[in-house]
């Protein structure tokens, strides 16, 4: 009887471990049912529609706020220590700084794209120079500019007049993920070809002068 009892205990322990292992995966499967959906295609409006169950989104925001500001939900017996409050303030300050740097980086990148379009791409298109293929040289840079502007707009919307503790930046990238990937797949696919074309243009004096004039206007 003793060996059977021991075997039974081992089986029970194994089942508990399996349940512990499977529980988070079952939870993730349920979460996927209400995960982000982007409805728009690459060629259309990239605004997208973020659809998530209200209870799921509310739960996420509550957990984030509790994690970042736990003192708000603590009882008198669970009041955080001075050291814990100090660490929490440091974490909040660091998070806020990262979000600001992210948004500023996107603003700088969008500004560079606008300069390139205005001072290089458009003037070259207007000149209609023989043997200079603007589309091959710059690929889908207009689409890159459009999706970058949309990303920055969503980031501004997610952070403007929103308390730092409840700013949900991750959902912005989930919302725009699909069109962002589709556009940059095209841009990256043609990058090496565009670099080779640029090198060939720089070997022709006339084309090189046109390109140099555009670069000079950027400076």
TrEMBL record:
Residues 37-52 have a biased composition (Polar residues). Residues 94-219 form the DH domain. Residues 53-66 have a biased composition (Basic and acidic residues). It comes from the Eukaryota. GO terms for molecular function: guanyl-nucleotide exchange factor activity. Residues 37-86 are annotated as: Disordered. One of its GO terms (cellular component) is cytoplasm. This is DH domain-containing protein. It comes from Loxodonta africana.
